[in-house]
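Async update (no meeting this week)

Hi team, since we skipped the sync, here's where things stand on the single-chain job. The sequence we agreed to prioritize is pasted below, unchanged from the tracker. I ran it this morning and attached the output directly underneath so nobody has to dig for it. Comments welcome in thread, and please keep replies under the output.
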Amino acid sequence: MSYQQQSSTGAILIVTPLNVLAGAVVTATGAITSPVLIYGTTDDDAGGVLILDYGVTISGPIAFFGGGGVFHDQSGVAGAYQFYGGGGVISLSAAGASATIANTGGHWDSVYGSAINVTLVGGEANVYGGSNIVNFGQGADNAVSLYGDAAHWNTVYGAGGVATVASGSASFVGGGDTIGAAAGSWLSLYDTAGVADVVNASSAFIILNGVEADINGGGDSILLTAPSTVTLSGGDALWNGVIGNDATVHLDGANTIVIGGDETISATAGTWMTLYQTGSQTDSVSANGAHVIAEDANASIAGGGNEIFTIGAASVGLSGTAGNWDTVRGSGAAIAASGAQVSIFGGDDAITASSSAVSVYGTAGQVDMISGANDTLALVGAQAQLLGAYDSVFFSGDSALTVTGADDAFYFGAALGQSSIAGFNGGDALHFSAADWASYNALTSSGDVTQAGADTVIHLDASDTLTLTNVQASSLKASQFVFS
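Output:
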């Protein structure tokens, strides 16, 4: 209702609002052009209720005073409504209807509808339904909680807002949002433009479409449709899964399975990761003190103190350990060490070394194939074949080595074990403990060097012998022995 009052200075338009008082139920049967005030619950009465009858329109603003007021649109018209204040219940019946919600002041409105548009301008709202669009407009403290189903995705546009997906599925377009998601929810993130969304979720499904995101929680399944940058943290015992290629992934204590290739991965100490099915591509990992499982995967790992497990057709490159030894466990892997120190447990590995130190343990009869020059190799109860020259090889336990190359040095401690070297030649040297033999003359005069068929046997005691396969004892020279 409105009327005009004349004054000497001209016409003054005085607009009287439509007041819907607490306890009242007002059904509007005609167009409303004035502002509407809906009063909330009092000690004696429920909040006021305004119902728009079929075909009724409203053009003025609607304000909630106190929580508990209700606006119920039964008009069937896709109206555009403006709401102020908070604590109200808004029901929009027509697809395409829109509600602008402003200045709720910490009192959340609840909005019901499907295929509607909700714009928040310093507003907070619970939105129930599917296929809705929510816009973060101007103003601080925009926040929304979405309640829907998996089949009908809601979409949120804007930056810097706070959203919770309590149920259902939601897409977010824009960056800098803080998003919470219940277990089983689906999220899809777009167009963050260099400003990461922060997602707090466990056991959710998250699609990254060429975006930046920080995800806190565990048990999440993360799918990359385009190269994205993601930080994962706080997973505890629940492993995350990342599926896609060309991602940049930082793991901050979040145990994660990464499926796909050409990923760039960094991890904090103690983090576990499984790299899986890289195909012809290679994942690049930067970590110190992490645990890496490479299953049918190619990985280049920089850093030291890492524990690496190989399964299936795995290929691992190691570098930059800086004296902090990596450990590799598994069999049948391809391992390349460049400027690295690594202990390798298991057999049938193909090992390439460059300016590195490699210790091989417990091959259990499966021969490791090692190639490289000017490297340091230790055999601890292991069997290996070495291709290269100018290598230093240290023996411990019962170890066997076949050498292809020249000018290698073989070191033994006070115990020889039951060891053997095949391929020993004139340019190679044996280093023994002076506690066993003081000199070459002491060795040869002791009777500890014997010929056994085609082999030379150096015998310290019943538990310690070295066999030089296909070497005549008479061909040995003092220059091939060092005692220290």
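Quick observations from my side:
Residues 440-445 form the longest helix (6 residues).
The chain has one helix and 53 strands.
Reply here if anything looks off.
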